[in-house]
Amino acid sequence: MQLGLARLWNAYGVGPKAVIGHSVGEIAAAVTAGAMSVADGARLICRRSRLLRQAEGKGAMVMVGLPFEEAAGRLAGRTDLVAAISSAPGSTVLSGDVAAVEAVLNEWPAEGIVARRVASDVAFHSPHMEPLAVELAAATADLAFGAPRIPMYTTVLADPRSTPVLDSAYWAANLRDPVRLAAATQAAAQDGYRAFLEISPHPVVAHSITETIEEAGFEDVFVGTSLRRNQPERSTLLAAVGLAHCHGVEVDWSRLQPSGDLADLPPYAWQHRRHWRDASAGDDENRGHDVHSHTLLGAGTSLAGSRSRLWRTSLEDANRPYPGSHALNGVEIVPAAVLVNTFLHAVAGADGAVPVLTDVEMMHPLMTAERRQIQIVHEPPAIRLAARTPAGPGEPEPAWLVHVTASVAAPGDAAARSNGAVQGNGAARGKGAAHDHAAAHGNGVAAGRAPALPDVLPEAGTTGLTPSTPASCTGAWPRSASPRRASNGRSRRCWAEKEYYAPQSAPDTRTTRTRMTDRQVTGRRRAGRPSRRR
Fold first, then answer.
1. Which parts of 411-476 fold into alpha helices (H)?
2. Would you list the DSSP string of 334-350?
3. Spatial CA neighbour of 124 closest among 69, 46, 48, 61
4. Which of 267, 300, 457, 516 is the most core-located residue (most Cβ within 10 A)?
5. For residue 450, which of 348, 321, 338 has the smallest C-alpha distance?
6. What is the CATH classification number for the domain harbouring 340?
7. What average pLDDT does range 225-238 have in this prediction?
8. pLDDT tens profile 394-437
9. Which residue, among 245, 221, 199, 201, has the nearest Cα to 12 in the 3D structure?
10. 325: burial class by Cβ within 10 Å (0-12, 13-18, 19+)?
């Protein structure tokens, strides 16, 4: 079987550079290495097998999870059980009397030592083999043996690299002495061999070889097999050949495919869809908002046949139109100042007239964690800001969620200016502590004409203003509100924020930039209904 499998590998162009034989497999290794003829190898194996009939049923073998030297030390001085096979650095096969093997199976696991029975009723490589070894040496004296033509790592001698004299005495020792597989495998790896193939009808030593190589610290070593029990022979062998080729073993493809050659893998089936967006010259319809403007006003356009206007943009963390961070409970949201500033800039008159917002209602916080499409729609006198997440491929368009609504007061509407409305200077007017504080410090909000609407909010470094302490920079969310729910059923309270800045030259003086609280901005206010102040 082993010689036949070796010839099959040869037929596919895979030839050995060196050989290692395990126990009786060393006969096939010697034939493969050219140390003896196939006929003499067959005679040797037949005479060996005939002698083993005398030992059938008289012995047993067990594999234990101990290094060979440690196992041999535990059994020192005993003849009923010996260390027989050094399979791997941590695995040894013991061989001897049936009773001694049973004792190991029953007692050693209690000490934490793995012990597994080996399917054999012959105590190979133990004192049981001594009378048979003498007979085998005599029975093979007439066979012709030579020197291997390729390196042969011996598993009988103490030095695996020594050149064995393959005479009858050697084969007698092969039957009686321990098998030093781990030492031979490690020597081959140290000599540079990086591919090992087990020639057998089912893997027996491949695992031990892998364990030995890994324990020795070698990397990128391939350990292959030939066939597997209960698997189709042809397909299994071809798969083994292909696996060996993938790990660098040379294969003669002309023998596998005489009429063809290796073909290139097909290329990727590119869809050739263009993803680059070309901006049209002079086309501002898809222009987004300016991140430095403190607004969400993108490209604006008018609607045919009406006074309505529409601004579109997209919002995400990367293009937040305000500096720093504005997070509530760890969720980044757009400040109310930016939303109000967006409305004020949207409805600002071309003649410089200061807009006044009334009925400002902020229903849902606008988060920036994921990309959102934004629309600001001005249908005089109403204005609203709505958002939605973009639809994925093949998904229906999601509905728009309105976040903020307001009304634009008509020019000269004194009632609106005195009833909690938001003027173009970005401050809230009306009764309350914030209004009284602003009036007391003369910031031009409580009385007189408001200053013109600035294009952008001033930077602290250029105005002489510095942020106040965290204690005076507070949010005006209702206690029951959260980033996910800004209102609760009957009471839809507005959410806003205070941003106080104190002049560096006057620590006790605080001016207000875009100041709104839930006391100053009504939650629901409709025509004909008085506002309810909280």
1. 414-417, 433-440, 460-463
2. --HHHHHHHHHHHH--T
3. 61
4. 516
5. 348
6. 3.10.129.10
7. 96
8. 889 899 999 999 999 876 665 555 555 666 544 333 333 333 33
9. 245
10. exposed
**Placement of tokens 């757009």 in the chain:** 334
DSSP 504: T
Tokens representing 496 are 């806003």
Query: Which class for 400: exposed (0-12), middle (13-18), buried (19 or more C-beta within 10 A)?
Result: middle
Q: How far apart are CA 464 and CA 447, in angstroms?
A: 24
Two tokens, residue 368: 């920036």
Q: Which pLDDT score is estimated for 354?
A: 72
Q: Would you list the DSSP string of 294-310?
A: TS---EEEEPTTSS-EE
Segments forming the whole domain that contains residue 43: 2-56+122-255
| 439-479 per-position pLDDT tens digit | 333 333 333 344 444 455 445 444 333 343 333 333 333 33
How would you classify the pairing of strands 309-315 and 372-379? antiparallel
- Distance between CA atoms of 177 and 124, rounded to whole angstroms? 9
Whether the pLDDT of residue 382 is over 80: the answer is yes
Q: Which two tokens stand for residue 519?
A: 């006391």
The CB-side HSE value for 411 (13 A sphere, CA atoms) comes to: 7
Q: Is the pLDDT of residue 81 over 90?
A: yes
The residue among 503 and 173 whose pLDDT is bigger is 173
Cβ count within 10 A of residue 334 = 23
Domain-embedded: residue 286: no
Q: Clarify whether residues 347 and 487 are in a common domain.
A: yes
CA atoms 283, 285, 289, 293: torsion sign: positive
Distances 134 to 58, 188, 318, 416 between C-alpha atoms, Å: 18, 31, 87, 120
Same domain as 428, residue 485: yes
244-282 burial, b at 16+ Cβ within 10 Å, e below that, comes to bbeeebebeeeeeeeeeeeeeeeeeeeeeeeeeeeeeee
Joined together, the tokens standing for residue 302 give 């008018």
Report the number of distinct structural domains present in the chain. Answer: 2
Q: How far is residue 235's CA from residue 197's CA, in Å, rounded to a whole number?
A: 17
Residue where the block lists tokens 């973009």? 390
> Does residue 30 lie within any of the structural domains?
yes
136 lies in a domain? yes
Token pair 């990309």 is at which residue?
Answer: 371
Given a contact cutoff of 8 angstroms between Cβ atoms, the answer to whether 439 and 447 are in contact is yes
Q: How far apart are CA 404 and CA 263, in angstroms?
A: 63
Domain assignment present for residue 95? The answer is no
